Amino acid sequence: MPSSTSLRPSSAPANRGVQRPSLAQIQTEKRRRRRRRAEDSLAVFVREAWHVIESTTPLEWNWHHDALCIHFQALIEDWMRVQLSRMELDYMPPEMRREMRERAARLGVLLPDGTFRKDVTQRYQDILMNVPPGTMKSRIVSVMGPCWVWTRWPEWRVLALSTTPDVALRDAIHSRDVLASDWYREMFEPTWRFSEDQDAKGNYKNTRGGQRQSKGITAKITGSRSDTILVDDPHDAKEIHSAPKREAVLLAWDTAIANRVNDLRSSTRLIIMQRLHERELAGHVLARGGVEHLCLPLEYEVKRACACPSCVRGETALGWKDPRTTEGEVLQQSRFPPEVVAAEKKRLGSYGAAGQLQQRPAPAGGGMFPRGWWRFHSLGGQRPLRNGAPVSRPEGCTDAPPARTPERFDRVFTTLDANFAEGLDSDPAVLWVVGTKGAQRFVLSRRVAHGYPDTERMLRQAAKDFPEASAHLVENKANGHAIVQTLRLVVPGVIAREPEGGKVVRAAALQPSVEAGDWHLLDGADWVGDVVEQFANFPRAAHDDDVDAASQGHIWLARPEVFVV
Predict the structure, then answer these.
(1) Number of structural domains, the chain?
(2) Which of 349, 378, 437, 484 has the greatest count of CB atoms below 10 A from its CB?
């Protein structure tokens, strides 16, 4: 039996000898943890810093803000890991070695022996973010993002570009306001300050070697190279129909911007913008491939418009998926209630809403030429089969049985939209072979060539394959005039056609005929998808040669007064 004394409760405090932290120590620890959370998460940083640049605007946080933050953060943190994996610690001063090890420990690349992992890979070096306007994209990516990176890696250098120098300067100033704020200095206690020899509004450095350069996207790029190229809205929506202005941006990207990085093996590129045209920077980089794609339409689409690997998978390289599952579900209900969405669609029009809101260059069903307008034909009047099943048609096209291809036509002709440029990246020359029966038009063949020699051979071969073709229409511009002069003695019926009005005007003349169901594409032909998509996206398609060829033929049929060479 235990002694009575052992049952007696102790009068001594249980925590005797343990010193309680002071209020100042508790507050210091809270600040340390708060700082660590902001350093570890761009999303937390944005919410903490919001009051610095938007003191009276409420922050309505939504899941898409998290999506932008985690994809930006993954891009930068993977780059940081690669940088650490290549470092030679033996040649660093002790203080720098200690700091690099702290960074490596936080990023998960520090080994037990104090060295860094070498088997580090980047999930992506290049990312395209397509997001509607009014969703805080610039605030997160162009303003807050660079400030957050300097809390973790103050040596980071960024080249920030936008459609005009004024827009690039605006975001640079907001970013500098955050970096210079009392909040930033007290929260993160940076070991750097702004360099006195380079502290302009749009171009500033810190004393640790970090730098931000901000320019218009077509400006001359000079100075040091960057670790990240950040492009925010490279095109002016009001000028998107200007081919020279679009092409100037693409040329600048290919020749002066994309390789303006410190290390082609690991430096990163981020483009954030709305889709405005098939042949703008987003369409350009998607066509080239090798870019991660985060696409956030305002209204959810179960069937995605984009055919890039990320969209086909339905998730990004991070395994992130759009949490919406219902067709038409809005990105952020609080900011985009039904009446606001309806007003924006009305203000922007069908093409503007498709691009800026839905991140597709043309309305889902098609613009001037909806997909459902096209009719089809086949030799037997039956759907062609492949592996025992009907050959699929482009999404949005009719499922009706094809018309039977007539055995005899009223007229057969070819129509060629010529182009002088050489190479696969240039606009192609497109030739259609068309047979007419009353008001019906049957596209019998569609052929593509690049450059003058191939175009000439293509027309010669078409005339040989379709000897019943009595007319060969050639647009009398670019290399069309040269083709007319070359073939006039060997191919009968070559007709030089002068373009009448602009491309959109000529397409508008064709539009009622297609809408009436007069135009039949060859069912099952491998070129049908290309034709339907180009017409659906016109006038914002990457190419318009099929539209030009068809409208040229339509106008000629309506106006038989032609010049035969």
Answers:
(1) 2
(2) 484
Q: Is the dihedral of CA 305, 309, 312, 317 positive or negative?
A: negative
Closest to 267 in 3D by CA, of 80, 140, 129, 120: 80
- pLDDT winner (highest mean) among 57-71, 379-393, 527-541: 57-71
Residue 421 sits at φ, ψ, to 5 deg, of: -65, 145
pTM assigned to the model:
0.75
- Same domain for 411 and 500, yes or no, is yes
DSSP for 141-155 reads IIIIHHHHHHHH-TT
For the beta carbon of residue 150, count every other beta carbon within 10 angstroms.
22
Regarding whether 256 and 141 lie in a shared domain, the answer is yes
pLDDT for 294-317, tens place per residue? 999 999 999 887 889 999 999 999
Q: What is the rounded distance in angstroms from the CA atom of residue 514 to the CA atom of residue 282?
A: 30
Same domain assignment for residues 309 and 413: no
Distance, first Cα to last Cα, the chain: 126
What would the pLDDT profile of 394-410 be if each residue is shown by its tens digit? 988 999 999 999 999 99
Asked if 348 and 421 sit in the same domain, the reply is: no
**CA R_g for the chain:** 31
Give me the residues paired with residue 226 across strands.
261
